[in-house]
Every structure is written in structure tokens, then in C-alpha cells.
Amino acid sequence: MHDSTHRNRLARETSPYLLQHAANPVDWHPWGEEALGLARRENKPILLSIGYSACHWCHVMAHESFEDPASAAVMNELFVNIKVDREERPDLDRIYQIAQQMLTQRGGGWPLTMFLSPQDQRPFFGGTYFPKEARHGLPAFTDLLQRVAQFYRERGADIAQQSEALQQAFDQLHSPPASGDTALTLAPVHAARQQLAGAFDPEFGGFGGAPKFPHPTNIEFLLRQWRATAGAEEPDLHSLYMGTLTLKRMADGGIYDHLGGGFARYSVDAYWMIPHFEKMLYDNGQLLRVYAHAALATGEPLFSRIAGETADWMIRDMQAPEGGFRAALDADSEGHEGKFYVWQPEEVSRLLDADDYAVFARHFGLDRPANFEGQDWHLHVFRSEDDIGTELGIEPAEVTKRLEHARRVLLEVRNRRVWPGRDDKVLTSWNGLAISGLAVAARALRRADLADAAARAVDFIRQQCWRDDRLLATYKDGRARFAAYLDDYAFLLDGVLELLQTRWRSEDLTFATGLAEALLAHFEDRESGGFFFTADDHEQLMHRSRSFSDEALPAGNAIAAQALTRLGLLLGETRYLDAAAKTLRAAWPALQHYPHAHTALLVALEEHLEPPEIVIVRGERTEAESWRDELARVYTPRRLVFAIAADASGLPSAIADKKALPETAAYVCRGMTCSAPVRSLSSLVALTRG
After folding, report:
1. Which helix (H) or strand (E) holds 461?
2. pLDDT for 127-182, tens place per residue?
3. Which of 426, 452, 466, 515 is the most exposed place for a label (fewest CB within 10 A)?
4. Residues 353-371: what's their mean pLDDT?
5. How far, in Å, CA of 156 to CA of 649, rounded?
6. Residues in domain Spermatogenesis-associated protein 20-like TRX (predicted)?
7. CB-CB contact of 533 with 547 (8 Å)
8. Over 60: is that where the pLDDT of 4 sits?
9. Distance of alpha carbon 155 from its chain centroid, rounded?
10. Contacts of 607 (CB under 8 A, 6+ apart)
């Protein structure tokens, strides 16, 4: 047995994921010069293992191999072992995921297991999860280790040749931008709309089959398509239908937490019934925003409720007392996936009175066979409240009341169970998404408490992660670390711009401008346009990536282009507008080939070609805000409204020029042209209709 008090070098780290491996018998190192230098000196290949704390298969591999003294002994003898949290180092994850796909011609994933040459950190072999014993067509992990080490010793020339080819493939990833005389058009927007319609599941919503991911950027894009045509003779109702059916099916599905609010990562089936149970801040920040927008667009009470409950979950379970939002809740508790969330009908019937149980069991399927691993019940809406009311001879309002009571009782009981692990590091980029979602929901749901929560998060990030006009990417246990990435700047800039529309604070505009300046100074690809994922003074890695497509997160380039367009219009700053335009030119070849993989960038393209309307209201604070609230009653994704008190200080000239008059007045700007002051709310509503 290995000594349980043994701690490897990960014990000094802040990442909860790395700390989970600090007592492994593997001699793990964090990524850094100490480990890379050791590998060079000893000429030992590097075993790089990348994962994250809410990743189920990462835990499996850790338990099977990294906690096993025999496996660890082989790893320690043959390799320098480096453990990376992909949430702290998305730069490394991005490079080695692409490399794994190039080397194996297979999709990537986590845990990612890569073997690197010690001289240049270029990978020569890799995969994802490897089992301890040979199975599923995969070799046993220790056999694989022996073969890889032997290959490294005996086949140096082959490795060097392959490594050169791999580096060339990386160097060719960036295609040249559209030429200066190419006209950017909305053609990719229309093409993406058709491709999404082709992949749409008309029965259960979503795009494609199992496993099903929420893809909030696609839904946001479709809502905007509908809204852009709402005044036309033939509005695009199918886009509205695709977006809202998907939102409804997810809200009814088991991917949604019907007791605590918030969404799991994805559904393993096509019906949204059984999720992979981890709950990530980044999914929920984006979904909160899109449900709030859908509530505004449709007036559908279900969407308001889901948005409100998701915001409540984020604030209650994920916001740290200091204001930042924590990263994730694990899928597993007590060693079993989903254990925290599932129920037995007998237990529920003991906890609820007969009337409540009659409604609850019918609604959530406790009167049907088990739907999770053949023995447990995971809540998922099977029957509507109206149908249950008809069957039981009670009013729908009474059904709703009983369900709400039952959900409260069961949540209280569930909270006493053993909780899944929580990754409580604060990631700047994911906080940007949470801030944006809360700011949008505060306006749509008229809830000042959501704006308070968003403002506290902005203040926390500014105090803890903003140093010398640069961001840091993570914060945990009093330490902010790691030079920030494109996503940190872009998502936070977008979040601050949303919060400024919900609640004007001049210091937030100063912060937004600082973020934009840092983006341009340190991330812009000045030759080709667009933004690199890492800054110009970042650690030198084998590749400096620049990508335009959406994954689980929207593309950093897309959000940067959109936010810079908006800030550039607000401030009359042509450098920001030019950088956004160059990003779209750089992405144009990708937009033409795969438009539906770039829906966030298509939103930026629309706002570049048809600039959003900006309304600035000046006057006594409460009245200026009441004018803004009146405009916020309708879903207008192509309009930004800022209510700025007459006595606000520290305003840049482009805003100070829109002077406060003795009475409340608004200025309506389209592109670089602004109206004369509009002095009555009814005139403003008339002027901005449509």
C-alpha cells in the first residue's frame, strides 16, 4: 500500500481538480518550467493528462490507474507526468485536443491522455480514456505505457518526422482572410438558418440526435431571425418555432433540475430525459439569457419561470459570498452518477400528503417504470398540468399550487443528502457569461436582485482579477492566477455591456473600455484580423490558436466582434469597429463553408452590416430608468438602451455630448447618426417601434 499521507507536487495548486490528484502515488507535476526542464534533462517523454473536476470518466481513470500503486510505478519510471485542469489552461487543452484529432482521426474529449516529446512538447501519440485492463478494443493502460516508452526510445527519427508534419498541419490551420474587395453579405446567415432547419428534431426539439446538447447560441440566433422578420409580410415563424420548441422540451426534460433550477451539461438520449448530471456555470449563464429573451419574445410563463429558477440556482448554489460565481457541480455523489438527483416513489409518497403526491407522481412520471438505470426515477415532465387537472377534477391553478408545494418539500429533503462535489474556483470567462445572463434576466423579469448579483460579480472580478490593465483567468483561495485568454476578455466585456443597460455605473464603462483596449493591444492578429486565443506575451507553446467556431462556449472571436461593434458605436470609436470588421473578414472563408457552426459570429456579422440602434436616456435617475424599462418590455435584440442619470460623472465625450436637459430626454442613434433629443416617452416609443 502506498502511504496515504504522501502528497505530490499538486498539493501546492489551487485547482480543485489538481488537488483531487495530490495524494495519488503518481509523481504528478503541474504544467510549468520545473516539469518541462526535468523532462528535457532526463530525456523522458511527458505523459500529459488533461481533465476537469466535473468529468465522470476523469474520475474513473483516476480511480483505476492513478490511485493504483502498480500503475503509478510504471508512470513514474517511464515518464514525467503532468496534470492539467482544462478550465485553468484552455490554451493547452485546445492545442492538444486538435493534435489528438490529427494523430488519431478521432474526436477528442476528456480525460485527454497525450504523450509529448520532452524537447519541444510536440505530441507523438495520444488518446482519451484508457482502461486499467484491456477492454472495449482499448489496450490496458500499463501495456500502453510500456509500448509508448519503447517507441520513444527506438523510433526517434519517425517521431521527429511525424512531429514536423504535425507542426506544418498546425501552421496551415489559419486560412487567409477575405480580400479587401470582397463584400460581406448576409448570405451565410440565410444558409445557417436552412442548415439548422435541416438538423432540427421537430418532435423533441434540438438539433441532431443523441447525445443532445443545448446549443444556446443556435437558439439565440433563431430568435433573432424571427424578430428581424416580425414586421414583414411573411415573418419567419419556423425560426421562432425551432427555438421555442427546443426551450420547452428542455424545460420539461430531465436535463432541467425541476427542484433546484438550472440545467445539466447535456442529455444522453434524444428526448432530453436523462442528462449527464454535471451542472456547469457556462451552460447556465447562456441558457438563463436565452430563456429570458424567449420570455420577453413570447410572453410564455414557462420561460419566465425557468429563467427565474435558473437565476435563483446560480445565486443560491454557485455565487460565493465575495461575489464571484463558482465553476461547476459534479455529476457524481457518494461514488454514483446522479445519486443526488434521483428518487424512489415510496420515499416521495412518504414525504408528501396524498393530494400533493397524486399530482406530483403523474406530472413527473413516478407512476411509470423507473427511467434511470432500471431502478431509480429521474424527474421529467410526462403529463401536463391541464391533463392532470381534468383527470383529478381540479382547477389548473390548484395543480400548480400543489406542484410548487411538493417541489419545495422535496428540495429541502434533497439538500440534506450528500452533495456532489463543487468546483469552487472562479473563472473570469464563465463569470462573464453569468453576468450577461443575469443582466438580461434582470430586465426581462424586472428583478433588481439579479442586477445586484451581476454587479457584485463584476466588482469581484475587477478587484481580484484585474491588475495593471490586464485580466487573470482564475481565482481560488485568495489567489488570482494565469494570464487571461481571449474568452475572459470577450465574455466579460459583453457581460459588462449588458449590465450597463440594466444599471448604469460609469466605472463599468471605464472597465469595459480597458478590456477592449487590452484585447486590441495583446490579442489582435494584426496581419489577418481576428484575435488569437492567447496574448502576445503568453507562454510560448507549439501553436498560437485562433478559432471562429462555437463549441460548448460561443467563439471568443464572435463575442469580441459583437461587443467591440457595440462599444464602438456607443463611444464613436472607429478602432473598435475596424477590429470587429477585420475579424469578420478573417472568418469569412469559415462562415461560407460551415455557417451553422458559427451562429455567434453570424450575430456579429448582422450587427456589422445592420448596426444596432442605441438609445441613450438622460434625466433624473428614476425617471430615466422608467423610460428604459418601458422600452425593455419588448424583445428587441438589435437595440441597446442606456439610462444615464443627469448628474452621472466620468462620461466620455461621445456620451457627455448627449446632454441632460431640464426634463428627461432620449437620443436615438443608428450607426454614427443620432436624433435630436426626444422629449416624451410616447414619442420615443413611436420612434423606436419595429
Report:
1. helix 448-465
2. 999 999 999 888 999 999 999 999 999 999 999 999 999 999 998 888 899 988 89
3. 452
4. 97
5. 65
6. 8-169
7. yes
8. no
9. 42
10. 562, 565, 566, 638
